[in-house]
Amino acid sequence: MTTRDEPTDHDETADATGSADDEESTRTAPTDAMTETATGADATTDDGAAEAPATDGGTAAAETDAGAEEATEAAGTRTPTTGAESVIAALEAAGAETAFGVQGGAIMPVYDALYASSVHHVTMAHEQGAAHAADAYGVVSGETGVCLATSGPGATNLVTGIADASMDSDALLALTGQVPTELVGNDAFQETDTIGVTAPITKHNYFASGTDTVGDTVGEAFAYAETGRPGPTLVDLPKDVTLGETDQTPKPPEPPAGAEVDPEAEPDAVERAARVIEESERPLCLFGGGVIKSGASDQARRFARDHGIPVTTTMPGIGSFPEDDPLALSWAGMHGTGYANMAITHTDCLIAVGTRFDDRLTGGIETFAPEAEVIHIDIDPAEISKNVHADHPLIGDAGTVLEQLLAAVDDGPDAEAWREQCADWKEEYPMTYAMPEDEPLKPQFVVEAFDEATGDDAIVTTGVGQHQMWAAQFWTYTEPRTWVSSHGLGTMGYGVPAAVGARLAADNAGETDRDVVCFDGDGSFLMTIQELSVAVREDLDITFAVLNNEYIGMVRQWQDAFFEGRHMASEYEWMPEFDKLAEAFGAKGWAVSEYDAVADTIEAALAYDGPSVIDFRIDPAENVYPMVPSGGANGKFALSEEQL
Amino acid sequence: MSGADDPTPNKPDPGSTHRDTRGKNADRSGMPGPAPEDRPHPEGRRNSQGIRIDPAVEAEHQPRRATISALVEDEPGVLSRVSGLVSRRQFNIESLTVGPTTVEGHSRITMVVEESDPGIDQIEKQLAKLKPVISVGELHDDAVSAELVLLKVRGDEPDKVHAITEMYDGQTLDAGPRTITVQLTGDERKIDDAIDAFEQFGIIEIARTGQTALSRGDTQTVPGEEPGTSGEPTSHATGSGETTQQPYRDP
Known about the structure:
heterodimer, A: alpha/beta, Rossmann fold, 3 domains, 6-stranded parallel β-sheet, 26 helices, 18 strands, globular, B: alpha+beta, Alpha-Beta Plaits, 4-stranded antiparallel β-sheet, 9 strands, amino-acid biosynthesis (chain B)
């Protein structure tokens, strides 16, 4: 309550504060309603949304007329009285269970409305952490993640996380406070042109212009984030709009007109693609993040297995196809497996689903799948032929189009010889590493030991760098939504807040016994280590594994390979002792540098019910291979530095 | 091969705290498998636009001029969204005009771009993804197009200026002892020719609007306008029918 001391010219503050206090006694009502919705296993959020306003409307009609606003609230109904309450009502109607954010002046009215809400708010240490946590929450739950921040620095601190969500097509709603409308443009205290700053990194952003419509706007932004190709949206909320009075109950959340995409691809195009697949000799599936976002992993697996087509994935597509399947070649690209890159180089029919052909996947475009007819399934027409020309574009939802293809392909391709070739490549280019006795602990060993110690449903989050690549290479992923990482933007520091979001998403789904493991580098860990305080405060069961080589390791690797070994600003002469730092945060901490201690410490950390940190002192000279140098040919991946 | 013991002339003195990591991996392990030069490599290639090169027709798409028309919701910031998209995706744009349409609250944006076919395709698709964009399309070559130019020339020879203005169906907007300002409209080529003709007087300033265009005849330019019937005012009563003469505000 002390935060309400902020001086303000707005008379409404008193009302808002008063009503929030009054609502304290009624807090259980909405919570119960939410529990009911959540426990009905298949109760859709639509049901919840439809019920709540109906109840509200009835009560409001009966009691608001009597002029007894307090009475209405005492009855536990949700007719908003302010723009801010309308914002929260929209979130509730959309089915948002958890939101991540940081308080601040211009967003205070919204936080005040959260006081009596069923939405669980997690206070993060930094707004960047809020955006990443919401992003990862959305990745794991399949729903739109929600983050909040105040104006100015709050909003700009969200920017990295919003850009990250944009690059990885993650559904994210950011709500930012803004200075009162009449001050906008005057360089007021904590004013930033948030709309201008975030326009290039959002699907769309909204400047809330009216108290009566702000709830509808928030509902639309929430729905739009997950409509079609997912992505981040933002609503900028001037303080006068959130403080202003309204009696408007927001409409059920709906995407803007025309945003819905036809899930089915054009049948003729599907038929043509089916013929190409049937006649191919070296067919290859390339499953991207879109497969997971569409919930199409089942269809993808059936399609590949029914027709005996080998499968590679992109990095965001990890988990769409089980990596222990005989058809699986794991992921392709810069640090992908040798066999995936061989297959992608030699395929004559590439069935690419939900991928945007990022340059880290394709390497030099001239040598990417150079002999393949490309069948490209994507929900976003703008991705068709953007980077790689699609001979057969199939625009639609990944799952729906894969079903169409399943029905259209009669006799699968005769690919026996090709499958054998792919199997040979797996033998020829195995993902192995050496563990000489005179060398320090190998990071790959740590990743494998964690994989061994956890179930198939364990969730892995990472920062960005060498550790991320090892976590992707040496863990065998079998399920979608278990790999949570920063791909397109490559955001160091993603791992810790992402683990917070991932843990809460699993817990909300009742999956409290799933393990959440965050692999981080020492450099990456230090960028967002403050979010460890959130994991402790919220008592989140997360194991943080720092693969500590006292380097910005990926940069060091590139300096060795391309800058003649000059370690400019990549080498840390000193690093904090992360195990002790963890203890200072109130988490459990270990430091491990010997192979003997790895398994036992992992077991102890996983068994510990709360956040724990293991500082693995790994071999600082270890490099990530295979590697396709930037712009190089996938088929010419290097297996060691001398091959670069 | 740059093993740890090899002399590397450009490498600075590592100093006492510096760990030498270079080449360690190559020396010690590396990953098993044939080296890049020992692997089979396909003959095929793609061009820089990602199109598989057919040896028979090995051609990249060359840039060409295209006129793109879009109907947009006239909401705050729409112009900055469109121009921001064009600039951050590095599309080559020659001109952009904006003005009201038959529908209240809708504007038409006309863009002339210089791009290859895949680039033009991308511009249309990326524009279509913007929420305030209602419809977007490329105009055919036979579209009617016009732009407006204001030319301020030296007023030393008013009769000759007047004659050339007449020749190009222009209007004199302002004539003073030292300067004459004329207005000309027409397609780009006519405007270019007119400017050439006026150069003899000494052109002081030029303001050109850039092209705006509609498709010819019955063909709809892009879907979204509300055609009126004779005698009925359109819902947007202002439109001058000329190029963008309405002040366009874009906060």
